[in-house]
Specification:
Elements (H helix, E strand, L loop, with lengths): L24 E7 L2 E8 L4 E5 L10 H7 L4 E5 L16 H15 L4 E6 L1 H12 L4 E7 L5 H4 L4 H9 L5 H12 L2 H6 L2 H12 L10 H10 L13 E7 L7 H10 L4 E5 L6 H4 L1 H17 L1
Parallel strand pairs: 3-4, 3-5, 5-6, 6-7, 7-8
Antiparallel strand pairs: 1-2, 2-4
Helix pairs in contact: 1-12, 2-3, 5-6
Length: 297
């Protein structure tokens, strides 16, 4: 079983999006042609969670459940994803970062600990570059500074990626799992059951690719924060690298950390790209400690 808290059963329709707790709030914000859907829960120092390619905001559910007892969490569907449709404006990293800041305003956050995974980590970098004063700390998980680096595929990754688009639905699900889950986990799991349990967190059957994915990847390819990483000096930054990550390869995370003066690099030897879902307790502990250290100054 992929770690705790428990992954909801796949039969729960993501479209229902019912609140999980009485204190959880659902909201929408009309912003540049899109009705952005977001959620708020918890009390304490604010945390903004920015999701990656093709996932709706509920992909952060394992982190939210681990943090809401001490933090006010804001998570949302990126433009063109989940309930934030139609996309409205063109999808760019800059637009996604603007969306995130607008949602902070809607939530009443003067600033926040900003967490991003994969594409969301790139958006988090742009938030810090464009609105530095709104960022208490940065947590950059399984990500990179230059998008095209992650999209330069080896022959084996190109074949694996193609397998997520062709073949039976079962085969496509299994290929997708190979991209995001470590081999050791796949070796001990029922892969079909795992794909079913993960579907509500992704917001779609793992055999499918939401239409917005190609637009998000085009935005990622066009973005390069490398020349500006030194501007993030003084922001408490943690870069988390998964050694078995086949998407945001470890060397990309190391280069990102090396370009941000004072950034702390954390490498997880037994993790892959989906580590926030596979090892939530471990990731949540790292996040909570990083937030606490940043707030102490």
């Amino acid at each position: 079983m992929i770690g705790a808290p428990p992954i909801p059963a796949a039969k729960q329709a993501p479209a229902a999006r019912a609140p999980r707790a009485a204190e959880e709030q659902l909201g929408t914000l009309e912003h540049r042609g899109c009705r952005l859907a977001y959620r708020l829960a918890g009390q304490g120092p604010p945390v903004l969670l920015v999701q990656g390619t093709g996932l709706h905001g509920e992909g952060w559910r394992p982190q939210v459940e681990g943090l809401v007892d001490r933090h006010r969490c804001l998570w949302f569907d990126n433009r063109g994803v989940g309930a934030s449709v139609p996309a409205g404006a063109k999808i760019t990293i800059e637009q996604m970062a603007e969306d995130a800041v607008a949602l902070m305003d809607a939530a009443g956050f003067a600033d926040a600990h900003v967490v991003g995974h994969s594409l969301g980590g790139v958006v988090a970098q742009q938030v810090a570059l464009a609105a530095r004063g709104r960022v208490r700390s940065l947590s950059l998980l399984c990500t990179m500074a230059r998008g095209r680096d992650a999209l330069s595929l080896s022959p084996s990754m190109l074949w694996l990626g193609l397998r997520t688009y062709v073949g039976t639905r079962r085969a496509r699900r299994r290929a997708f799992l190979e991209m995001v889950v470590p081999p050791a986990t796949l070796g001990r799991e029922d892969r079909d059951g795992l794909a079913e349990r993960l579907a509500p967190l992704f917001g779609h059957d793992l055999a499918d690719h939401p239409p917005v994915v190609m637009k998000q990847l085009a935005a990622l390819r066009a973005f390069d924060a490398t020349p500006r990483l030194a501007e993030l000096a003084g922001i408490s930054t943690m870069v988390l690298v998964a050694a078995l990550d086949r998407i945001a390869r470890p060397e990309l995370g190391r280069a990102l950390a090396g370009g941000i003066p004072g950034a702390r690099l954390v490498e997880l030897a037994d993790a892959a790209h989906g580590v926030p879902l596979e090892q939530p307790e471990r990731v949540n502990a790292l996040l909570a400690a990083h937030f606490q250290a940043a707030d102490r100054g």
